[in-house]
Amino acid sequence: MEDIPPQDISPQDLAMTLLGAYVPDREQALVWAGGLVALLTEFGCTQNAARVALSRMVQRDLLERERDGRLVRYRLTKRTRDALAEGDRRIFRFGEQPESVDCWTVLWHAIPDERRDARRRLAVRLRFLGFGSVQDGLWLAARDREAEVAALLAELRVERHAGLLTGKPSRIVDVRAAVARAWDLDELAERYRRFVHTYRGVEPAVLDPAAAFGIRTRMTHEFRQYPLLDPELPARLVPPPAARADAVAVFHELYPALAPAAQRYFDEVITP
């Protein structure tokens, strides 16, 4: 294992990682604001940036603020609970053998600027479904994602700004060239290599709770990005990125091994 490098982490994204990894009762839990701010500062956020991020998450209907005297606590909204559940499905099944591809999905849209938040949310969710961006407003997935995308467009209320097709690529299409336009698999392979180099060799037994929490949180936050970046194309189309299997194995070994000590630290800091 090498030293864990600092990461340029969005406070809101990091807060989602913390909530997903350390709040088991997502329906009922109330998370102390002061403790959450303190944890965010451990990863390079200023206290002011952390507070602003949490306020924006309230504005985005990701958190509900509840006051108990002088204490402020946050409750996870349904939107956040749904997002975390979807993330869990993708993260913990990530790296399984992809099914054979018989149907591709193409989405195009022209969402106006006044709906830019919906456009941003659509892009994030499409990447989580395995889509890559071929060009502005044009997305491609090597799966049949018709049902999921139709539900997503309806949820965001942008159906009239989008079109959706499913089918097979023509035999005259260079599939590898199309893949290269939608996904940067070389950069992805390098990210996997760095992940394995950084976290392989971590020894949970020798870490105190604070160190276990820091390593597990950074590792989880980084691993959360892979379902957004990796389309998991079948090997008969494109060989899988080098070191993907090793990265998945490292994550699944360390995530539970670091959990007891990391959870103790989280619970201690989050308790007023």
Automatic annotation (TrEMBL):
Pfam families: PaaX, PaaX_C, PaaX_M. It comes from Labedaea rhizosphaerae. GO terms for biological process: DNA-templated transcription. Transmembrane segments: none annotated. InterPro entries: PaaX-like_central (IPR048846), PaaX-like_N (IPR012906), PaaX_C (IPR013225), PaaX_trns_reg (IPR011965), WH-like_DNA-bd_sf (IPR036388), WH_DNA-bd_sf (IPR036390). Gene3D superfamilies: 1.20.58.1460, Winged helix-like DNA-binding domain superfamily/Winged helix DNA-binding domain. This is PaaX family transcriptional regulator. Residues 183-267 form the Transcriptional repressor PaaX-like C-terminal domain. Residues 103-170 form the Transcriptional repressor PaaX-like central Cas2-like domain. Residues 13-79 form the Transcriptional repressor PaaX-like N-terminal domain.
